[in-house]
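Try this one yourself first.
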């Protein structure tokens, strides 16, 4: 179940928004009120978690190139 970030919507000038997290099903509607205080809230759109993978560099043959016909790694035949 994903965790969503919400913040209160300030009702007075200089009032700060308070952020909180809550676990909800993706099928649940977004909250409109803080579950404890009843204050109006909005869902905060934040960056997600991404997976970064790194491919291994192509292995060079003894001749200094990738081999296999064409050379895509900058060497010459």
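Now uncover the answer:
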């Amino acid at each position: 179940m994903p965790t969503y970030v919400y913040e209160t919507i300030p009702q007075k000038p200089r009032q700060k928004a308070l952020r909180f997290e809550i676990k909800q099903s993706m099928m649940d509607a977004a909250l409109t009120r803080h579950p404890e205080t009843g204050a109006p809230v909005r869902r905060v759109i934040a960056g997600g978690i991404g997976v970064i993978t790194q491919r291994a560099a192509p292995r060079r043959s003894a001749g200094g190139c990738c081999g296999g016909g064409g050379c895509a790694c900058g060497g010459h035949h």
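Discussion: Residues 64 and 72 are 12 Å apart (CA to CA). The two ends are 54 Å apart (CA to CA).
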